[in-house]
Amino acid sequence: MSRFLTDRYKGLTPYVPGEQPADMTYIKLNTNESPYPPSPKVLEALDKTAVDRLNLYPDPTGARLREKAAALYGLKPDNVFLANGSDEALAFAFMAFCDDRRQAVFPDITYGFYPVYCALFNIPCIQIPLREDFTLRSEDYFGINKNIIIPNPNAPTGLALPLGDIEQMLQTNPGHVVLVDEAYVDFGGRSAVGLVGRYENLLVVHTFSKSRSMAGARLGFVFGNAALIRDIDMMRYSFNSYNVNRLTLLAGEAALSDAAYYKDMQQKIVAARDKAASGLKALGFAMTDSKANFLFVRHPDIAGGALYKALREKGILVRHFDKPRISDYLRITVGTPEQMDTLIAALRTILENRN
Ligand code: PMP
């Protein structure tokens, strides 16, 4: 920290993402990326013309991409906000709708960025503990009279809530926003996007980083009532009006025109997840019923940190959180079937050789 940093930010603890090693020698199962490349249509779209036009700013309204994304869900373009990754969308939403009077409520054990936004924007956050088995008690949120941020499925547990629970949160908190973070919805959850026309307090956040194989392009979406979307857009125009770059806009449009490709990839990942879950159970691992592209697992005989290190030494990166209640767990991204076989073989060796 330099001596020039303002007092306001001296105590800030930033969000630390998982490791992104520069070399590709690791089997990378630590940040929930897709193991597959984007649709071939994305490569076609990023042609010489696209590169030559990088001298020009991107369309700040992202009109074509918003139109395509809206059409996918029977919405209008003014129901769609585009962001430089869903992290940015979340930041703008916290900025726009939360303050010390309109506080943010989210689960205790969830995506690590939410408390960071609260600290950054001076928002008192209320974290509601999950049950012993990591399930979320929806009733805790009914009528709570605050802004609710619900990841569905949750991270890092992978547990999904039925849409009925989300609807009850919406109905019992009409004076506040319910933001559903659906980063992992395409791997077995139920999306709330279909409810956008019915609830003026609903925001649904999507990302292209997981099921659309484009974490490196940074593209996130928010779907919601046009008035809410305008409010978030006001934050963006006040902050960085060209937030989504030209290449990402083109890549996003191309990706949205190849639904069949992504459906196939998502099915492959779900099949690999379920097969890996069986393999891990056979080795004695306990786990949550994940509906995401990762597994949240624990072995009764080895601490999470030790297992993380042993895997790292074997060239496999997974995620370990040194946090209360979950420090015995590993979050393992679902890779290709071959990567999952390598992981299970490595874990078998580690377990056999433990003293
Ligand atoms: N929400 C959740 C629950 C996540 O796990 C992540 C990814 N780590 C994000 C949002 C952000 O994704 P991105 O910024 O890549 O769109």
Please explain how this structure is put together.
The chain is of the alpha/beta class and 355 residues long. 35% of the residues lie in helices and 15% in strands. The protein folds into 2 domains: 124 residues, Alpha-Beta Complex (Aspartate Aminotransferase, domain 1), CATH 3.90.1150.10; 219 residues, Aspartate Aminotransferase, domain 2 (3-Layer(aba) Sandwich), CATH 3.40.640.10. The chain is built from 11 helices and 13 strands. Strands 2-8-7-6-5-3-4 form a 7-stranded mixed sheet, with helices on both faces. Strands 9-10-13-12 form a 4-stranded antiparallel sheet, covered by helices on one side. Strands 1-11 form a two-stranded parallel ribbon. Helix 3 packs parallel to helix 8. It is globular. The site of 4'-deoxy-4'-aminopyridoxal-5'-phosphate has 12 residues, from helix 4.
Briefly characterize the structure.
The protein is of the alpha/beta class. It has eleven helices and 13 strands.
The span between the termini is 43 Å
Which structural class should the secondary elements be placed in?
Answer: alpha/beta
Bound molecules: 4'-deoxy-4'-aminopyridoxal-5'-phosphate
Q: State the order of secondary-structure elements, H for helix, E for strand.
A: EHHHEHEHEEHEEEHHHEEHEEEH
The quaternary structure here is: single chain
CA radius of gyration is 21 Å
- Outline the low-pLDDT stretches: none
Helix content: 25-40%
Shape, per Cα inertia axes: globular
Order of strands, widest sheet: 2-8-7-6-5-3-4
The number of helices is 11
Largest sheet: 7 strands, mixed
The CATH architecture assignment of the largest domain turns out to be 3-Layer(aba) Sandwich
| Number of DSSP strand runs | 13
Number of domains: 2
